[in-house]
Structures are given as C-alpha cells and as structure tokens.
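Response to reviewer comment R2.3. The reviewers asked that we include at least one raw input/output pair. We reproduce the pair for DH domain-containing protein here without editing.
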Amino acid sequence: MRLVIRLFIQPLRDRSQPPTWIPGVPADVGRLFDWLDDIVQLHAEFARVLHSARQSQYPVVMTYAGLLIPLIAKLEVHQPYLVRLEEVSRTIDTMMKQPESDFGEFLRMQSVSDEWDGLSLSSWLLKPVQRLAKYTLFFKVGISR
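Raw output as returned:
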C-alpha cells in the first residue's frame, strides 16, 4: 500500500497546508485516497504495536490485547472508505479508459511504472478491506494457540 501512496497519491497532492489535490483529480477519488492514506497509517501503527508486543512473549494474548484495545476505535476510519470504494473504483477504471482524461493518463502512466506489479489500482484499493478480515483470523488463531 505504501507503493500505491507513493505512485498514485503523493504525486497528485498539492504541497500546500493543508494538502489539497491538484486540479483534475475527481473529488470522490481524492476523498477515497485521503481515507486510504489514513487507513495505511493506522495499519502501520498496528504493525508497530504488534512488533513491540512480540518482544515480550509472555503472556502473549494479554500483551496483544492490552496494546491493541486503544487502536480498535480507530478502525472506524474504514467506514467511509468501504462505503465509497466500489463507486470510486468504477470511476478510476472508467477514467483509465478515456484517452482525453488527464487524470486517466496519469493513472495509466503510473500503472506501467517499473515499480508497479501489474495489479490494477482498483485491486490494490481492496487491500485494506482484505486486511480487516485477516485481523479476525489472526486473533482467532492467536487465541486458540
């Protein structure tokens, strides 16, 4: 997801404070990208907490639970993202097919970057949704051990 941010979000942001989107970025796409950036930051915070908890092995479940409880409420950042994801993904896919769209041209150019793995941007935008499901599985497996 950091690659998505580096290739598709950062180049489209105006460096003003607060950051805004350059002209031509559809408003709904900009909002979804803002939410995605917040979600990626939250998941990075989860990763830092889990990594630090791994350092103290006993009691593992209680250590993880105690460290993650303050982050649980922050998962609400996913709500607007989940609501708008399908519609914005359609917008992105449509604009990528429009040769006269400057935004579509930017997306096409970034999608052929040497860093990009060939997966569509819309597929990458599903990753935060899939991560939520993985958290549930992670905790079920962790608790049953």
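The longest strand covers residues 13-14. The chain has a mean pLDDT of 84. Further pairs are available on request from the corresponding author.
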